[in-house]
Design brief:
Elements (H helix, E strand, L loop, with lengths): L13 E4 L5 H12 L3 E6 L7 E2 L2 E5 L5 H15 L4 E4 L14 H29 L2 E6 L12 H21 L4 E6 L23 H16 L4 H13 L6 E2 L2 H13 L2 H11 L5
Parallel strand pairs: 1-2, 1-5, 2-4, 5-6, 6-7, 7-8
Antiparallel strand pairs: 3-4
Helix pairs in contact: 1-6, 2-3, 3-4
Length: 278
Amino acid sequence: MAQGHGTQAGARRVALVTGAAGGIGRASALALLQAGFEVFGTSRRVDAGEVRDSIHMLPCDVTQDDSVQRTVAAVLGMTGSIDVLVNNAGRSLIGAAEESSIEQAQGLFDVNLFSIVRTTREVLPVMRKQGHGRIVNISSVLGFLPGPYTALYSATKHAVEGYSESLDHELRTLGIRVSLVAPAFTRTALEENGDKPDRMLRVYDAGRDAANTTWKRGIAAGDPVGLVADKVVLAATEAEPSIRYTPGKTAGRFRMMRRFVPEKMFDKSFRKQMGVIG
């Protein structure tokens, strides 16, 4: 397994995974542990010093500067380094764009985008000092696809993609690489733990209900979280990491279709697959 540039031979590499209490975050933390990392995970609802399956859990609210600062300081205090940051914490929102207030939209961006900016800013000084590091941002196929009845969620993921690709270009000469992992439907609790619009409008009831049904069915039949976790490990360890990993056949198919299928043909097929009415 490739060592990150600048890592001392024999030194145990350290990974920090946000949103590691369950789902993709927990699976990624366990996979990194299996790959030989010392792993720290964050969640809003854990006790400091709690250890779950050899993962050191730390309480952290990724929407708060001081909470992120304390978390990173705690990891550095125990290990002296952070070799890999996995930004996984996030929320979903299914509903028409018109159904969410500006405050709700801002809250979603704070969790899905600005938390990544926040944690990345906090670890970059130590990665620059080390001369190496990997930042792995969990995106979605909705980071490069349209998302009917998930316009705001899709917007956050499009923003994550643009931020991550741009950041990778800035950091390569410093020995730091940034990668995206963009899954399609994955068997997690994302949909049931997601937000609902804060001002539902009857005109969108049929479309919203269809979107919720599509998501529930897609997640139930989706890829196992282990496929996503495997790509996280690749992004963290490959000597020349890719900018984007698409776990599972569905995500790979969507990526190819988006690139090569004519726009109108893709639009018609995608609306059908997503259950868009009319």
